[in-house]
Every structure is written in structure tokens, then in C-alpha cells.
């Protein structure tokens, strides 16, 4: 079970120690308010601070952190604090996936499965879902089976 409060505290602590990965993770917490308690708002940190989240993700990505790339991709996907861009989203997810981030592999599989930011390619979708599944990302095996079922439907 994911504990957002604990993850937030770890990301915040690591970011204050100049860890690029923690800074990228903290950017997602700040953009979506995950695990941020009321004492943070009282100490001057807003529950959701999208401009600061984008700055943190950008700084993390500039240090070539998979978490920074992943956070920026998420922001580009939803147009959160940045101009929405499927191409930039795909590029950032690709960088994070190449560095081994399982969640980015899952996101890339979805991009290929639905043709978001790239031409639809079920073979590449299956490959990324399989990689994500091997990395232990929840839901990736189900998506892999979905792609396999689509292949089977096309063959019949």
C-alpha cells in the first residue's frame, strides 16, 4: 500500500539534500498535493504549488533524473503548469523509461497503444508493458494481456 505522507516526507528531505531524483518526486507531490499535511501549508508551502512543481521537475530533469523526466512528462500530458504537448510528453517518458523507471515504461506502453505522441504500434506497446510488468508495476500485466487480445482479434 502506498503511503503518500511517508513518500512526501522522504522526497522533501531528499530534495533538501539536493537529490535530483527526490526533487523530481517532490514536484509531483507539490503539483497534486499528495501527502502534504496542514503543517506544511502553515510553514509557507501551499498544498498545491504548480509553478514550483514545474521548476523542481525541470531542475531534476536538467540533472538527467528519471523522476524529473517522468514528472515533466506527466505535466506535459495534462498541461499542468506547462503548455500541453504530446510530443514533449513522449520524449520525457522515453528518457525516464530508458533509465529504467517502471512507471515510465507503463506510460510509454500506453502511448504506443493509443497513438499518443507517437504512431500507434501494438508491438512496441506490448514490449513496454512487458518491461513494466517485469519491473513490478501494477496493472502492466493486464495491459499487456489487453494488447495480446487485440493481436488475437486481428489474426481472426
Notes on the protein architecture:
- The protein has 156 residues and is mostly helical.
- It is 72% helix and 0% strand.
- It folds into two domains: 1-84, no CATH class; 100-156, no CATH class.
- Helix 1 packs across helix 2 and helix 4 packs across helix 5 (66-78).
- It starts with a helix and ends with a helix.
Low-confidence stretches: none
Rg (C-alpha, Å): 17 Å
Give the domain tally.
2
Largest sheet: none
Short description:
This protein has helices at 4-16, 20-32, 38-42, 50-62, 66-78, 86-98, 102-114, 122-134, 140-155. With 156 residues, it is mainly α. Helix 6 crosses helix 7 (102-114) and helix 8 packs antiparallel against helix 9 (140-155).
Topology, please?
Layout: H1 4-16, H2 20-32, H3 38-42, H4 50-62, H5 66-78, H6 86-98, H7 102-114, H8 122-134, H9 140-155
Q: Which keywords apply here?
A:
156 residues; mainly alpha; 2 domains; elongated
Amino acid at each position: 500500500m502506498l503511503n503518500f505522507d511517508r513518500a512526501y516526507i522522504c522526497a522533501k528531505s531528499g530534495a533538501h539534500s539536493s537529490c535530483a531524483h527526490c526533487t523530481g518526486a517532490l514536484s509531483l507531490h507539490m503539483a497534486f498535493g499528495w501527502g502534504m499535511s496542514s503543517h506544511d501549508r502553515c510553514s509557507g508551502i501551499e498544498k498545491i504549488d504548480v509553478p514550483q512543481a514545474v521548476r523542481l521537475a525541470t531542475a531534476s530533469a536538467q540533472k538527467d533524473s528519471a523522476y524529473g523526466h517522468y514528472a515533466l512528462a506527466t505535466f506535459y500530458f495534462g498541461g499542468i503548469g506547462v503548455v500541453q504537448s504530446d510530443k514533449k510528453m513522449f520524449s520525457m517518458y522515453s528518457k525516464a523509461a530508458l533509465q529504467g523507471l517502471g512507471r515510465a515504461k507503463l506510460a510509454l506502453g500506453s502511448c504506443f497503444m493509443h497513438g499518443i505522441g507517437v504512431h500507434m504500434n501494438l508491438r512496441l506497446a506490448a514490449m513496454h508493458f512487458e518491461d513494466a510488468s517485469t519491473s513490478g508495476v501494477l496493472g502492466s500485466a493486464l495491459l499487456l494481456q489487453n494488447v495480446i487480445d487485440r493481436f488475437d482479434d486481428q489474426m481472426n
